[in-house]
Sequence to fold (415 residues):
Amino acid sequence: MVRLHHQDDRRERRKGEADGIADKGSPGRLGASSVGGIQRVAGGWRAGGDDLESRRAPGRVDGKLKPNEERWSRIRPGPARSGSPECIVSSGPPKTVLVFNYHRVGAETAGDPFSMLHTVSLGALRRQVRLLARLGPFVSLDQIRDGRGLGRLSFAITFDDVSGTILSAATFLRERSIPFAICPCTELTDRGFGVRDKVYWVVRLLPEQELREAVRKAAGQEVVAGGKGFSFYRFTKRPDLDADWLETEIIDPLLAGIQGAERRMAEAGAYLNWRDIRRSFCGQSDGLVTIVNHGWRHRPMDRFTEEQVAEDVERSAERFRQELGMEPAWYAVPFGRASASLAARLAAALRPRGYRGILWVGRSGYAAGGEGTGLIHIPRIQAPRGLWRLLRRLPSYVKRRAASALDAVAAESAE
Ligand SMILES: [Zn+2]
Fold:
């Protein structure tokens, strides 16, 4: 039985408001808002007592730093005190963790279909991490679950699909002793591409008229009616479509029109293979990497029966055991939008295998400690592309924090 709402969350919200965590803007602080120890004040931001200015301060230029880094170099942690992000609170309300999920890390190359996957530049990731590190500690998934080493505001990083582009980012994080998780989807790791990549290739390499015609033939005129409003990309994400039918009746026949597409996709090295993962992420003594099961086929699982969910879990787990000699204790749901029915089916499959938590994707932070010690449901945030966008959205991530991804999605859909 999955709860969508519970009393603890309401209690925690009230407590959060009392602690200035909710975005209320207290009287006397004109136009200000405060979240998790970060305050928006007139003309800038304040964290741990120092301004995160949105303007350059004249006369304080450090020639070694780029403009953005220069701005952030002036954010000093300040002394730990009650209410500052650096103050580790040992009791009181649950602590907020923002888990940022990345996919590709690098440049978006014009014409490269793989770069249609969510992409953040390496520079942006570095700037984001440097900024966040000033606001609170980076923690591992196990630390979130066990409540170890959390600040009032903490951060975590995951890489879904394990793109071949994440190695530099991983090195950057390791050099700073920042824990992170990689989430291989076993079909992508085995073959080097998946259904979504087929869609990217079809969208990038075939004329739109051909895509529209293929959909009209397979699904009917009314689906493509509306002319300019039709998007093949969006069409393939419709949750009401049968994924097998979509792939075999529409996507694969279109892909067959691109010469050598599957071979070219496999050879492109878009995703790390098992050997790459073993070499880069297994057997390291620093203990910074968590390996997460991201499923077998990377399908929208909402429509899966309990048996199909169990089969996907079993087949992916088997590949982890064969290739890495281990089975992950964490599961990242493909596509990731939380639903109570899928959560229940996944829990039935994962709990007996000793999994510790399920990772979803939403727009909320996670209020750690509210779910007890069972299988926990952590909402993650798709990492924004730039530093400023991340900074602008931080207050809403914290404000929306929820004690479970299921609570988060219920609150987000009520907005
Ligand atoms: Zn994925």
Notes: The pocket of zinc ion is lined by residues 160-161, 185, 294, 298, 334 (CB under 6 Å). Residues 306-324 form the longest helix (19 residues). Residues 238 and 332 are 20 Å apart (CA to CA). Residues 1-92 have pLDDT under 50 and may be disordered.
